[in-house]
Amino acid sequence: MKTMKYSKKGILVVVSGFSGAGKGTLMNRLVSTYENYALSVSMTTRQPRPGEQNGREYFFSDVEAFEEKIQKDGLIEYASYCGNYYGTPKDYVISQLELGKDVILEIEIQGALKIKDTFKDALLLFVMPPSVDELYKRLIGRGTETEEVILKRLERAYEESEGIEKYDYIVINDDLDDCVQEMHQMIKIARNVPVRNIEFIENVRTELKGISKGE
Amino acid sequence: MKTMKYSKKGILVVVSGFSGAGKGTLMNRLVSTYENYALSVSMTTRQPRPGEQNGREYFFSDVEAFEEKIQKDGLIEYASYCGNYYGTPKDYVISQLELGKDVILEIEIQGALKIKDTFKDALLLFVMPPSVDELYKRLIGRGTETEEVILKRLERAYEESEGIEKYDYIVINDDLDDCVQEMHQMIKIARNVPVRNIEFIENVRTELKGISKGE
Protein backbone atom coordinates (compact mmCIF):
# COMPACT_ATOMS: atom_id res chain seq x y z
CA MET A 1 0.00 0.00 0.00
CA LYS A 2 1.33 3.35 -1.06
CA THR A 3 1.02 5.43 2.09
CA MET A 4 2.83 2.81 4.10
CA LYS A 5 6.22 4.21 3.19
CA TYR A 6 5.31 7.13 5.41
CA SER A 7 4.29 7.04 9.06
CA LYS A 8 2.45 3.80 9.79
CA LYS A 9 0.76 5.22 12.85
CA GLY A 10 -2.66 6.73 12.36
CA ILE A 11 -3.38 10.44 12.58
CA LEU A 12 -5.44 11.84 15.40
CA VAL A 13 -7.89 14.20 13.71
CA VAL A 14 -9.81 16.72 15.78
CA VAL A 15 -12.80 18.33 14.08
CA SER A 16 -14.36 21.50 15.46
CA GLY A 17 -16.66 24.06 13.95
CA PHE A 18 -19.71 26.22 14.52
CA SER A 19 -22.99 24.60 15.39
CA GLY A 20 -24.78 24.26 12.05
CA ALA A 21 -21.60 24.11 9.98
CA GLY A 22 -22.22 20.45 9.19
CA LYS A 23 -19.39 18.70 11.06
CA GLY A 24 -21.40 15.60 11.83
CA THR A 25 -22.51 14.99 8.25
CA LEU A 26 -18.97 15.53 6.95
CA MET A 27 -17.46 13.14 9.49
CA ASN A 28 -20.03 10.42 8.88
CA ARG A 29 -19.54 10.66 5.13
CA LEU A 30 -15.76 10.58 5.53
CA VAL A 31 -15.86 7.47 7.70
CA SER A 32 -18.34 5.67 5.44
CA THR A 33 -16.46 6.57 2.22
CA TYR A 34 -12.93 5.53 3.19
CA GLU A 35 -11.68 2.56 5.16
CA ASN A 36 -8.86 4.08 7.15
CA TYR A 37 -10.96 5.92 9.71
CA ALA A 38 -12.24 5.19 13.18
CA LEU A 39 -14.71 7.51 14.87
CA SER A 40 -13.95 8.03 18.53
CA VAL A 41 -16.88 7.42 20.85
CA SER A 42 -17.14 9.70 23.89
CA MET A 43 -17.89 8.63 27.41
CA THR A 44 -20.64 10.40 29.34
CA THR A 45 -22.47 10.27 32.64
CA ARG A 46 -25.71 11.51 31.17
CA GLN A 47 -28.62 9.09 30.79
CA PRO A 48 -29.02 7.33 27.43
CA ARG A 49 -31.85 8.73 25.33
CA PRO A 50 -34.32 6.38 23.66
CA GLY A 51 -32.63 4.60 20.78
CA GLU A 52 -29.06 5.36 21.91
CA GLN A 53 -26.76 2.37 22.24
CA ASN A 54 -23.85 1.99 24.63
CA GLY A 55 -20.65 2.11 22.55
CA ARG A 56 -22.34 3.66 19.52
CA GLU A 57 -23.49 7.18 20.44
CA TYR A 58 -21.62 7.14 23.76
CA PHE A 59 -20.07 4.91 26.34
CA PHE A 60 -22.50 5.43 29.22
CA SER A 61 -20.94 5.48 32.66
CA ASP A 62 -21.83 6.40 36.23
CA VAL A 63 -20.13 9.31 37.93
CA GLU A 64 -17.92 7.09 40.09
CA ALA A 65 -16.50 5.18 37.11
CA PHE A 66 -16.03 8.41 35.18
CA GLU A 67 -14.13 10.06 38.04
CA GLU A 68 -11.97 6.97 38.43
CA LYS A 69 -11.17 7.28 34.71
CA ILE A 70 -10.12 10.89 35.29
CA GLN A 71 -7.94 9.89 38.27
CA LYS A 72 -6.18 7.22 36.26
CA ASP A 73 -5.47 9.61 33.39
CA GLY A 74 -7.69 7.49 31.16
CA LEU A 75 -9.23 10.39 29.24
CA ILE A 76 -7.65 12.52 26.53
CA GLU A 77 -9.89 15.40 27.54
CA TYR A 78 -13.10 15.82 29.47
CA ALA A 79 -15.51 18.56 30.39
CA SER A 80 -18.57 18.99 32.54
CA TYR A 81 -21.67 20.30 30.80
CA CYS A 82 -25.14 20.78 32.31
CA GLY A 83 -24.15 18.67 35.31
CA ASN A 84 -22.86 15.73 33.26
CA TYR A 85 -19.37 14.64 32.36
CA TYR A 86 -18.29 14.13 28.76
CA GLY A 87 -14.86 12.82 27.83
CA THR A 88 -12.72 10.97 25.29
CA PRO A 89 -11.38 7.58 26.47
CA LYS A 90 -7.67 7.35 25.79
CA ASP A 91 -7.27 3.59 25.36
CA TYR A 92 -9.57 3.32 22.32
CA VAL A 93 -7.90 6.24 20.56
CA ILE A 94 -4.38 4.98 21.22
CA SER A 95 -5.12 1.40 20.15
CA GLN A 96 -6.74 2.55 16.89
CA LEU A 97 -3.81 4.87 16.11
CA GLU A 98 -1.38 2.00 16.72
CA LEU A 99 -3.37 -0.12 14.27
CA GLY A 100 -2.79 2.60 11.68
CA LYS A 101 -6.35 3.93 11.76
CA ASP A 102 -6.90 7.66 11.54
CA VAL A 103 -9.08 8.50 14.52
CA ILE A 104 -11.65 11.29 14.18
CA LEU A 105 -12.86 13.20 17.23
CA GLU A 106 -15.45 15.95 17.23
CA ILE A 107 -14.59 18.37 20.03
CA GLU A 108 -15.26 22.02 20.72
CA ILE A 109 -12.42 24.46 20.57
CA GLN A 110 -11.08 24.47 24.15
CA GLY A 111 -10.99 20.68 24.19
CA ALA A 112 -9.32 20.63 20.79
CA LEU A 113 -6.53 22.93 21.91
CA LYS A 114 -6.03 20.88 25.08
CA ILE A 115 -5.59 17.78 22.90
CA LYS A 116 -2.98 19.57 20.82
CA ASP A 117 -0.99 20.14 24.05
CA THR A 118 -0.84 16.41 24.72
CA PHE A 119 -0.85 15.05 21.18
CA LYS A 120 1.49 17.47 19.44
CA ASP A 121 0.93 15.81 16.09
CA ALA A 122 -2.87 15.85 16.21
CA LEU A 123 -4.39 17.41 13.09
CA LEU A 124 -6.90 20.15 13.86
CA LEU A 125 -9.63 20.88 11.31
CA PHE A 126 -12.14 23.68 11.61
CA VAL A 127 -15.36 23.39 9.61
CA MET A 128 -16.89 26.68 8.51
CA PRO A 129 -20.04 27.59 6.62
CA PRO A 130 -19.52 29.37 3.28
CA SER A 131 -21.03 32.49 4.87
CA VAL A 132 -22.74 33.65 8.03
CA ASP A 133 -26.00 34.06 6.09
CA GLU A 134 -25.79 30.42 5.13
CA LEU A 135 -25.10 29.41 8.74
CA TYR A 136 -28.11 31.38 9.90
CA LYS A 137 -30.30 29.76 7.24
CA ARG A 138 -29.15 26.30 8.24
CA LEU A 139 -29.84 26.92 11.92
CA ILE A 140 -33.31 28.29 11.13
CA GLY A 141 -33.90 25.51 8.60
CA ARG A 142 -33.63 22.88 11.31
CA GLY A 143 -36.91 24.25 12.59
CA THR A 144 -36.22 22.81 16.02
CA GLU A 145 -34.79 25.79 17.83
CA THR A 146 -36.13 29.07 19.10
CA GLU A 147 -34.74 32.37 17.86
CA GLU A 148 -33.15 32.77 21.29
CA VAL A 149 -31.28 29.46 21.03
CA ILE A 150 -30.12 30.34 17.53
CA LEU A 151 -28.75 33.68 18.73
CA LYS A 152 -26.93 31.89 21.54
CA ARG A 153 -25.35 29.56 18.99
CA LEU A 154 -24.24 32.50 16.87
CA GLU A 155 -22.72 34.22 19.91
CA ARG A 156 -20.92 31.01 20.71
CA ALA A 157 -19.78 30.82 17.08
CA TYR A 158 -18.30 34.28 17.40
CA GLU A 159 -16.38 33.23 20.52
CA GLU A 160 -15.11 30.10 18.79
CA SER A 161 -14.09 32.07 15.71
CA GLU A 162 -11.38 33.73 17.79
CA GLY A 163 -9.42 30.47 17.84
CA ILE A 164 -9.54 29.49 14.16
CA GLU A 165 -5.89 30.45 13.51
CA LYS A 166 -4.80 27.73 15.92
CA TYR A 167 -6.20 25.06 13.63
CA ASP A 168 -4.16 23.40 10.89
CA TYR A 169 -6.83 23.79 8.23
CA ILE A 170 -10.23 25.28 7.62
CA VAL A 171 -12.84 23.40 5.61
CA ILE A 172 -15.48 25.62 4.03
CA ASN A 173 -18.53 23.42 3.85
CA ASP A 174 -20.43 24.28 0.71
CA ASP A 175 -20.36 21.04 -1.29
CA LEU A 176 -20.37 17.87 0.81
CA ASP A 177 -18.47 15.64 -1.63
CA ASP A 178 -15.78 18.23 -2.28
CA CYS A 179 -15.28 18.80 1.44
CA VAL A 180 -15.08 15.11 2.27
CA GLN A 181 -12.39 14.71 -0.37
CA GLU A 182 -10.51 17.76 0.93
CA MET A 183 -10.56 16.43 4.48
CA HIS A 184 -9.37 13.04 3.27
CA GLN A 185 -6.45 14.67 1.47
CA MET A 186 -5.50 16.77 4.48
CA ILE A 187 -5.39 13.66 6.65
CA LYS A 188 -3.54 11.57 4.06
CA ILE A 189 -0.91 14.24 3.47
CA ALA A 190 -0.42 14.67 7.23
CA ARG A 191 1.56 11.41 7.10
CA ASN A 192 4.26 13.29 5.16
CA VAL A 193 4.96 15.77 7.95
CA PRO A 194 8.55 15.31 9.22
CA VAL A 195 7.60 14.96 12.90
CA ARG A 196 5.56 11.87 11.98
CA ASN A 197 8.52 10.31 10.15
CA ILE A 198 11.30 10.80 12.66
CA GLU A 199 12.37 7.16 12.54
CA PHE A 200 12.81 7.17 8.76
CA ILE A 201 14.63 10.53 8.85
CA GLU A 202 16.95 9.35 11.63
CA ASN A 203 17.76 6.16 9.70
CA VAL A 204 18.66 8.18 6.63
CA ARG A 205 20.87 10.44 8.74
CA THR A 206 22.68 7.55 10.34
CA GLU A 207 23.28 5.82 7.01
CA LEU A 208 24.43 9.04 5.33
CA LYS A 209 26.85 9.67 8.16
CA GLY A 210 28.18 6.12 7.88
CA ILE A 211 28.54 6.10 4.11
CA SER A 212 30.11 9.57 3.85
CA LYS A 213 32.70 8.57 6.44
CA GLY A 214 33.38 5.36 4.54
CA GLU A 215 32.10 3.19 7.38
CA MET B 1 -13.48 26.84 -9.91
CA LYS B 2 -13.55 24.94 -6.69
CA THR B 3 -10.37 26.06 -4.95
CA MET B 4 -11.30 29.69 -5.47
CA LYS B 5 -13.41 29.77 -2.33
CA TYR B 6 -10.11 29.55 -0.48
CA SER B 7 -7.12 31.87 -0.78
CA LYS B 8 -6.95 33.25 -4.30
CA LYS B 9 -3.29 34.09 -3.98
CA GLY B 10 -0.85 31.46 -5.18
CA ILE B 11 1.36 29.43 -2.86
CA LEU B 12 5.11 29.95 -2.83
CA VAL B 13 6.53 26.42 -2.87
CA VAL B 14 10.18 25.86 -2.01
CA VAL B 15 11.61 22.48 -2.97
CA SER B 16 14.85 21.22 -1.47
CA GLY B 17 16.41 17.80 -1.26
CA PHE B 18 19.60 15.82 -1.60
CA SER B 19 21.47 15.85 -4.86
CA GLY B 20 20.24 12.74 -6.68
CA ALA B 21 16.86 12.66 -4.93
CA GLY B 22 15.12 13.64 -8.17
CA LYS B 23 13.84 17.15 -7.38
CA GLY B 24 14.21 18.43 -10.94
CA THR B 25 12.28 15.58 -12.54
CA LEU B 26 9.49 15.90 -9.98
CA MET B 27 9.18 19.64 -10.45
CA ASN B 28 9.17 19.45 -14.23
CA ARG B 29 6.52 16.75 -14.18
CA LEU B 30 4.42 18.73 -11.72
CA VAL B 31 4.55 21.86 -13.84
CA SER B 32 3.78 20.01 -17.08
CA THR B 33 0.92 17.98 -15.55
CA TYR B 34 -1.06 20.77 -13.89
CA GLU B 35 -1.85 24.28 -15.05
CA ASN B 36 -1.61 26.23 -11.83
CA TYR B 37 2.17 26.28 -11.53
CA ALA B 38 4.92 28.69 -12.51
CA LEU B 39 8.56 27.70 -12.22
CA SER B 40 10.71 30.49 -10.87
CA VAL B 41 13.75 31.30 -12.99
CA SER B 42 16.92 32.31 -11.13
CA MET B 43 19.20 35.18 -12.00
CA THR B 44 22.93 34.55 -12.27
CA THR B 45 26.15 36.32 -13.20
CA ARG B 46 27.73 33.19 -14.60
CA GLN B 47 28.19 32.91 -18.37
CA PRO B 48 25.46 31.13 -20.36
CA ARG B 49 26.45 27.63 -21.46
CA PRO B 50 25.82 26.53 -25.04
CA GLY B 51 22.09 25.99 -25.56
CA GLU B 52 21.01 27.96 -22.50
CA GLN B 53 18.46 30.71 -23.13
CA ASN B 54 18.08 33.92 -21.19
CA GLY B 55 14.82 33.68 -19.22
CA ARG B 56 14.54 29.91 -19.56
CA GLU B 57 17.43 28.32 -17.63
CA TYR B 58 18.45 31.61 -16.01
CA PHE B 59 18.18 35.33 -16.32
CA PHE B 60 21.76 36.19 -17.20
CA SER B 61 23.09 39.41 -15.73
CA ASP B 62 26.38 41.22 -15.22
CA VAL B 63 27.77 41.75 -11.72
CA GLU B 64 26.82 45.42 -11.64
CA ALA B 65 23.16 44.80 -12.48
CA PHE B 66 23.03 41.91 -10.01
CA GLU B 67 24.48 44.02 -7.19
CA GLU B 68 22.03 46.79 -7.99
CA LYS B 69 19.24 44.20 -7.69
CA ILE B 70 20.58 43.26 -4.25
CA GLN B 71 20.74 46.92 -3.20
CA LYS B 72 17.16 47.52 -4.25
CA ASP B 73 15.90 44.47 -2.34
CA GLY B 74 14.87 42.94 -5.65
CA LEU B 75 15.87 39.37 -4.75
CA ILE B 76 14.07 36.94 -2.47
CA GLU B 77 17.37 35.28 -1.67
CA TYR B 78 20.78 35.13 -3.26
CA ALA B 79 24.08 33.40 -2.73
CA SER B 80 27.54 33.49 -4.18
CA TYR B 81 28.90 30.20 -5.48
CA CYS B 82 32.24 29.61 -7.26
CA GLY B 83 32.65 33.33 -7.82
CA ASN B 84 29.21 33.85 -9.35
CA TYR B 85 25.99 35.22 -7.94
CA TYR B 86 22.76 33.25 -8.03
CA GLY B 87 19.46 34.69 -6.84
CA THR B 88 15.66 34.63 -7.09
CA PRO B 89 14.12 37.79 -8.57
CA LYS B 90 11.30 39.00 -6.38
CA ASP B 91 9.10 40.76 -8.97
CA TYR B 92 8.42 37.63 -11.05
CA VAL B 93 7.53 35.55 -7.98
CA ILE B 94 5.24 38.20 -6.53
CA SER B 95 3.43 38.89 -9.80
CA GLN B 96 2.79 35.18 -10.41
CA LEU B 97 1.50 34.70 -6.85
CA GLU B 98 -0.86 37.65 -7.31
CA LEU B 99 -2.17 36.03 -10.50
CA GLY B 100 -3.03 32.97 -8.39
CA LYS B 101 -0.20 30.81 -9.75
CA ASP B 102 1.64 28.54 -7.35
CA VAL B 103 5.29 29.38 -7.80
CA ILE B 104 7.87 26.61 -7.45
CA LEU B 105 11.46 27.39 -6.45
CA GLU B 106 14.26 24.89 -6.10
CA ILE B 107 16.62 26.12 -3.42
CA GLU B 108 19.09 24.49 -1.07
CA ILE B 109 18.32 24.38 2.59
CA GLN B 110 19.86 27.64 3.90
CA GLY B 111 18.15 29.63 1.16
CA ALA B 112 14.87 27.84 1.82
CA LEU B 113 14.90 28.72 5.50
CA LYS B 114 15.77 32.34 4.68
CA ILE B 115 12.72 32.48 2.40
CA LYS B 116 10.53 31.16 5.21
CA ASP B 117 11.67 34.13 7.31
CA THR B 118 10.38 36.60 4.71
CA PHE B 119 7.46 34.62 3.27
CA LYS B 120 5.96 33.12 6.42
CA ASP B 121 3.37 31.23 4.42
CA ALA B 122 5.80 29.63 1.96
CA LEU B 123 5.36 25.87 1.74
CA LEU B 124 8.62 23.97 2.22
CA LEU B 125 8.96 20.50 0.67
CA PHE B 126 11.95 18.23 1.15
CA VAL B 127 12.45 15.48 -1.44
CA MET B 128 14.11 12.33 -0.10
CA PRO B 129 15.22 9.10 -1.73
CA PRO B 130 13.49 5.94 -0.48
CA SER B 131 16.83 4.89 1.06
CA VAL B 132 20.45 5.91 1.18
CA ASP B 133 21.37 2.83 -0.89
CA GLU B 134 19.00 4.05 -3.57
CA LEU B 135 20.52 7.55 -3.45
CA TYR B 136 24.01 6.10 -3.81
CA LYS B 137 22.91 3.97 -6.77
CA ARG B 138 21.32 6.97 -8.48
CA LEU B 139 24.44 9.08 -8.03
CA ILE B 140 26.67 6.28 -9.37
CA GLY B 141 24.16 5.54 -12.14
CA ARG B 142 24.64 9.00 -13.60
CA GLY B 143 28.10 7.79 -14.58
CA THR B 144 29.32 11.37 -14.78
CA GLU B 145 30.90 11.87 -11.41
CA THR B 146 33.99 10.56 -9.67
CA GLU B 147 33.76 8.58 -6.47
CA GLU B 148 35.19 11.63 -4.71
CA VAL B 149 32.44 13.93 -5.97
CA ILE B 150 29.81 11.39 -4.99
CA LEU B 151 31.20 11.19 -1.47
CA LYS B 152 31.16 14.99 -1.26
CA ARG B 153 27.48 14.97 -2.27
CA LEU B 154 26.69 12.39 0.40
CA GLU B 155 28.50 14.45 3.03
CA ARG B 156 26.53 17.46 1.92
CA ALA B 157 23.33 15.37 2.07
CA TYR B 158 24.16 14.49 5.68
CA GLU B 159 24.56 18.19 6.53
CA GLU B 160 21.28 19.04 4.81
CA SER B 161 19.49 16.20 6.58
CA GLU B 162 19.91 18.11 9.86
CA GLY B 163 17.30 20.62 8.72
CA ILE B 164 14.53 18.32 7.48
CA GLU B 165 12.28 18.95 10.50
CA LYS B 166 12.01 22.60 9.50
CA TYR B 167 10.18 21.62 6.31
CA ASP B 168 6.42 21.31 6.09
CA TYR B 169 6.47 17.96 4.30
CA ILE B 170 8.82 15.27 3.11
CA VAL B 171 8.28 13.58 -0.24
CA ILE B 172 9.84 10.14 -0.51
CA ASN B 173 10.63 9.80 -4.18
CA ASP B 174 10.12 6.18 -5.17
CA ASP B 175 7.35 6.37 -7.76
CA LEU B 176 7.35 9.53 -9.89
CA ASP B 177 3.60 9.66 -10.59
CA ASP B 178 2.66 9.04 -6.96
CA CYS B 179 5.03 11.75 -5.78
CA VAL B 180 3.84 14.32 -8.29
CA GLN B 181 0.28 13.70 -7.12
CA GLU B 182 1.32 13.96 -3.47
CA MET B 183 3.09 17.26 -4.08
CA HIS B 184 0.08 18.58 -5.96
CA GLN B 185 -2.20 17.69 -3.04
CA MET B 186 0.14 19.31 -0.49
CA ILE B 187 0.12 22.52 -2.47
CA LYS B 188 -3.63 22.45 -3.13
CA ILE B 189 -4.47 21.82 0.50
CA ALA B 190 -2.11 24.61 1.60
CA ARG B 191 -4.84 27.02 0.46
CA ASN B 192 -6.94 25.82 3.39
CA VAL B 193 -4.47 26.94 6.04
CA PRO B 194 -6.04 29.68 8.20
CA VAL B 195 -3.18 32.18 7.76
CA ARG B 196 -3.87 32.17 4.01
CA ASN B 197 -7.58 32.90 4.57
CA ILE B 198 -7.43 35.74 7.05
CA GLU B 199 -9.75 37.94 5.04
CA PHE B 200 -12.49 35.30 4.87
CA ILE B 201 -12.09 34.50 8.58
CA GLU B 202 -12.21 38.17 9.55
CA ASN B 203 -15.36 38.69 7.48
CA VAL B 204 -17.06 35.78 9.20
CA ARG B 205 -16.04 37.16 12.59
CA THR B 206 -17.37 40.62 11.81
CA GLU B 207 -20.67 39.26 10.52
CA LEU B 208 -21.08 36.89 13.46
CA LYS B 209 -20.43 39.73 15.86
CA GLY B 210 -23.00 41.88 14.05
CA ILE B 211 -25.70 39.23 13.85
CA SER B 212 -25.30 37.97 17.41
CA LYS B 213 -25.64 41.54 18.67
CA GLY B 214 -28.70 42.04 16.51
CA GLU B 215 -26.98 44.70 14.40
Question: Explain this structure to me?
Answer:
- 2 copies of one chain form a homodimer.
- Chain A has 215 residues and is of the alpha/beta class.
- Chain A has helices spanning 23-33, 63-71, 90-98, 109-118, 132-141, 147-161, 176-189, 198-212, and strands spanning 12-17, 37-39, 42-44, 58-60, 75-81, 84-89, 102-106, 123-128, 169-172.
- The first copy, chain A, folds into 2 domains: 7-36 and 101-215, P-loop containing nucleotide triphosphate hydrolases (Rossmann fold, 3-Layer(aba) Sandwich); 41-99, 2-Layer Sandwich (Guanylate Kinase phosphate binding domain), CATH 3.30.63.
- In chain A, the strands form 2 sheets. Chain A has a 5-stranded parallel sheet with strand order 2-7-1-8-9, with helices on both faces. Chain A has a 4-stranded mixed sheet with strand order 4-3-6-5.
- The interface between A and B is large, with 48 and 48 residues.
Mean pLDDT of chain A: 90
State the separation between the terminal residues of chain A, measured CA to CA: 33 Å
The tally of domains of chain A stands at: 2
Gyration radius of chain A (Cα, Å) is 20 Å
Oligomer: homodimer
Chain pair with largest interface: A-B, 48 and 48 residues
At CATH level 3, the topology of the largest domain in chain A is: Rossmann fold
CATH superfamily of the largest domain in chain A: P-loop containing nucleotide triphosphate hydrolases
Number of strands of chain A: 9
How would a textbook summarize the main sheet of chain A?
5 strands, parallel
Task: Please identify, by name, the CATH architecture of the largest domain in chain A.
Answer: 3-Layer(aba) Sandwich
- Output the structural class of chain A: alpha/beta
Strand order of the largest sheet of chain A: 2-7-1-8-9
H/E element order of chain A: EHEEEHEEHEHEHHEHH
Shape of chain A: globular
CATH class of the largest domain in chain A: Alpha Beta
Spans of chain A with pLDDT under 50 lasting ≥5 residues? none
Strand content of chain A: 15-25%
* Annotation field: number of helices of chain A: 8
